[in-house]
Amino acid sequence: MKRLYRSNQNKVVCGLLGGLGEYFEVDPVLLRLFFVFLTMCTGIVPGILAYFLGVAIVPKSRAEIK
User: What is the domain range of residue 46?
Assistant: First the structure.
């Protein structure tokens, strides 16, 4: 069963979008570009709040960094 975790390897800020990319098997760069575009279109504050809410909800990955 697949589980959603924040990524240890594909992280820029906290690894949330990297983890989403790994979960959905999508390039995390595309998710980051979409997130930045969506945040700019809806206002910066709601996007930042949504990101850090996701960081608070999604647990860190337990996998070791190689």
Answer: 16-57
